[in-house]
# Entry
Amino acid sequence: MPVNAVGRELPERIGNYLVKPYQGTNALEPTSKKVVSNRVLTLRPASGSKVVDTLEQAIQATGLKNGMTISFHHSFREGDLVVGQVLTAIRNLGIKNLRFAPSAVVNIKNPSIVDFVRDGTITRIEASGIRGELGDAVIDGLMEEPVILRTHGARPRAIEAGELEIDVAFIGASAADEYGNATGQIGPNACGALGYSFIDVTTAGKVVIITDNMVDYPCVPASISQQYVDYVVVVEQIGIPEKIGAGATRMTRNPRDLMIAQRIADVIAASRLFKNNFSFQTGAGSISIACTNYLADRMEERGIKASFALGGITANIVEMFNKGLVRVLEGSQSFDAVAARAIAEHPNILEIDNAVYSNMYGKGCMLDKLNFGVLTALEIDVDFNLNILTGSSGEMMGGLGGGPDVASGADISIAALPIVRGRTPSVVNKVFTICTPGETVAMVVTEAGIALNPRHKHYEMLREDMEKTDLKIVSIESLRQLAESFTGKPKQIECTDKIVCIVEYRDGTVIDVIRQIKR
Amino acid sequence: MQLKHPAVAGTLESSDVQVTIHPNNGMGLDIRIESIVKAQFGDAILETVEEVLASFGIAEALVRINDKGALDWVIRARMQAAICRGADCSFDWKGEDA
# Structure
């Protein structure tokens, strides 16, 4: 069996999937070929309207057939009502064996995605993550075909490389007009940025907009342009506002998380890259949110202003913007209602295409210009590899998101995690699933100290900067030993030989696979 | 040592363990473990439970463990408390000073 650059044994083929082993970031797969797109020349509808009465009619009009590929965005998060309605309509039409390729699978219930797998509507899944009931079922061997998991940056690459051709994209929008101009920024069920759907809209064979808020032509703002849209369907409701992210994300009160967050801000402030016009991405985990606030304090103390904040935008980043601490917010996703509304209110708060955020094969992405990125993770190993997918008992805990992209793009990528959670050590010898290669992780910040990665490109610079502070620098091995002294040595999770998930890195190579858990 | 009646120690909070102990007269030891980390630590938990029972000389008991990811020291302490309550005895702290 071939072994990839992070030491994982991989088969040469998994079913029909030809494995390209991850070779390390110095050997990233070069690509130079025509962009693949399923978009077709289409004569405008004679009626001057693209509105179709029901989802069933729209699906029939798209020509969706057995075995095709459908896609969705995940911007309504746990409040999504679009995916369930569309899949139910597809099932009613008796269409089967579909490849389900949303930007991420949100944990929807009633109906659950598992139901559509069990009845054969869906037979393949490709996404950034498969949390919840579906994730647990997949890891227990639900599907014949392995699920392909891709980072946010890897998905547009795979689409444009022709590895994931989308036949029909179903795009939920909180406002749309009869000709298909659409947005997520306004309306009762606004979700903010629709940055994950742009690649689908511009490359899918057919595009269907689904809204519960039809507005007068032309819909302004128009995140999605009419020129890409085939049909518009009005449904009763596209999302549950409380679950889309109604209020501002709350600040954690967990003292350990606050301590880690404060240390991250200290680390950033101690770096020589912390100067006017620096850039950052902190994310939306509880440590990340707290860290953003501490970072704002450090910036105010030192009179330093940032050029841009990137990725998923939260209320407290908007607050920094309002204080004049950040010049531009480049958001591919809005994590709460404050961030969602802010795009329409300020010209310097932008909704950006996920591809320009994270796709390294798009002639350069914004991550290339990022100074500091904070990465949350479930586990880190002594080689600094991160696991952001699987829990210690072999359960699906999350999605890849943009973490691996941020790690490789940012100058200084900072992994943040407590050394133990409950009785589970999170600094280990070998993580269960490698998602982010250790060579791209500059350091890890924990409650028990900070470890720098000697293999990182900026190690010397970081070491010099940190030595000038009183921050406690330790070795990652000592963090691992300390964690194990608290928890004891966990028994290895046993797996069968069946591969249930393939984890693709941002260049389309395979960084790891997940095998079915032996129960 | 003999257990006189059923007793409980601990809570179902995250990182805690709830130990319920019953006299099991004439039927030896019966240890039932539920744990969110059973796959990784089930054997270690059983070992600790048996060790604490032995240290009190208890040979007959029905012990139910409902573990929410407690560290070993916590399991040990909850076991000791449950035994002392079930046997109506106070904990002998002398051993702890050694």
User: Anything to note?
Assistant: The interface with chain A takes residues 14-15, 36-37, 39-44, 68-72 of chain B (CB under 8 Å).
